[in-house]
Design a protein that fits this description.
It contains 13 helices and twelve strands. By secondary structure, the protein is an alpha/beta fold. Helix 6 links the parallel strand 3 and strand 4. Helix 3 packs antiparallel against helix 10, helix 4 runs parallel beside helix 10 and helix 11 packs parallel to helix 13. The structure holds pyridoxal-5'-phosphate.
Length: 400
């Protein structure tokens, strides 16, 4: 029997594997926790921190899920996903972004889109391999790179380039150890969208330096004008691109946990094996709801986007009316990323001040990477009424 009797704080150090300490988290969950504590004390808090649509899943999708439960879709299914859904996804990838070569065999269905990221990094990155990722960017990229002992190489996104990555700067960061490039368009947290010329250059660089590209396209349907394009359509990219997408944002299905990756043929087996070893499969009835989402009417997406468009206009106008704050309209997703450098606060100071003095929960740009300093992320997945109230509170606190 062990004679070791550590105090509480020592237990983690004693028992946990070293890599446990390397996992990061998402600022949104931490801010939500603080906001809930305030609410428990009777304070009113307006929530701009959450990255999920405030809409319910469309009734025909919910109905398809219920029908599937009744029809016995309650068992294990294939680890890479039900054939019905993988076929629907392949059809949709052809329709929505011209990937007419997408083979259902190369589609991996996962519980939410996050596991695609997790598995791709586990499958590809050896200790010391370099991974270039957007900064500011979705915090899980960095967390996963660190977890597998990869070398995280941030690619700063700058306001001067509307937060689109600079291909020249990207190429300067490539070394013989660079294995993977992560891109995200439309982007969280900045709402930026890569333009066709950016995609051409990114593809050229990836081919020239033999990089694998993980293209996070989870916001592909949330674009304010124009059509979504994938880097996977560019010459030489088919065998080196992982397209990540899912149902959480476009179909307001965050709680269903349903996402997918389109992966090159050589990666399909290793990714499937990671599913076998972790989740076994994605919930079967959820997948049938996904078939209904892709094959059914798309009005739910259009209605949500029309509402986001209205809110975007109000948010951008009201932000620009606050002294020291500047905000360009986001091109995609549902986040505003205002420049707050004129207020004299750091992003963390201001996020805290807004929460505690104003009852407005939002995220510091710095929680998305160093290059996010000087900005805040405000999700407008909230009613117009709450947006107006929250922004009026922000104005009061910042201008006081
Ligand atoms: C950029 C980005 N990628 C991936 C995800 C993960 O989505 P899911 O909820 O489907 O796992 C999110 C969710 O916030 C995101 O913002």
């Amino acid at each position: 029997m062990s004679t070791y009797s550590p105090q509480e704080p020592d237990l983690a150090e004693h028992y946990l594997a070293e890599r446990s300490g390397k996992l990061g988290t998402e600022g949104a969950f931490e801010v939500l926790r603080k906001a809930r504590l305030l609410e428990a004390q009777g304070r009113s808090v307006i929530h701009f921190e959450i990255g999920e649509p405030d809409f319910d899943t469309a009734p025909h999708i919910v109905e398809a899920g219920i029908q599937a439960l009744r029809a016995g879709y309650t068992h294990y299914g294939p680890s890479n996903g039900l054939p019905e859904l993988r076929q629907a996804i392949a059809r949709d990838l052809a329709r929505s972004r011209g990937l007419d070569w997408a083979d259902p065999e190369n589609v991996i269905v996962t519980p939410g889109a996050k596991p695609v990221l997790f598995y791709a990094i586990l499958a590809l990155v050896n200790p010391g391999d370099e991974v270039i990722y957007p900064d500011p960017g979705f915090p899980i990229y960095r967390s996963m790179i660190d977890y597998v002992d990869g070398k995280a190489v941030p690619l700063p996104l700058k306001v001067e380039r509307e937060f689109r990555l600079d291909p020249d700067e990207l190429e300067r960061l490539v070394t013989p150890r660079t294995k993977l490039l992560i891109i995200n368009s439309p982007q969280n947290p900045t709402g930026s969208v890569l333009d066709p010329q950016d995609l051409d250059r990114i593809a050229e660089i990836a081919v020239k330096h033999d990089l694998v590209v993980l293209s996070d396209e989870i916001y592909s349907r949330l674009l304010y004008g124009g059509v979504h394009e994938s880097v996977a359509t560019r010459p030489g990219m088919r065998e080196r691109t992982i397209v990540l997408d899912g149902f959480s944002k476009a179909y307001a299905m965050t709680g269903w946990r349903l996402g997918y990756g389109l992966v090159p043929g050589w990666l399909a087996q290793p990714m499937t094996r990671l599913m076998v070893n972790s989740n076994s499969c994605t919930a079967s009835f959820t997948q049938m709801a996904g078939v209904a989402a892709l094959d059914g009417p798309q009005e739910c997406v259009e209605t949500m986007l029309a509402e986001f468009t209205r809110r975007r206009a109000v948010v951008v106008e009201m932000l620009n009316d606050i002294k020291g704050v500047k905000c360009a309209p986001p091109v995609g997703a549902f986040y505003a990323f205002p420049d707050i450098r004129g207020t004299g606060y750091t992003s963390r100071e201001l996020a805290d001040k807004l929460l505690y003095d104003g009852g407005v929960a939002l995220l510091a740009g710095a929680s998305f990477g160093e290059a996010g300093e000087g900005f805040l992320r405000l999700s407008y997945a909230n009613s117009l009424e709450n947006l107006r109230e929250g922004l009026a509170r922000m104005k009061r606190v910042i201008e006081a």
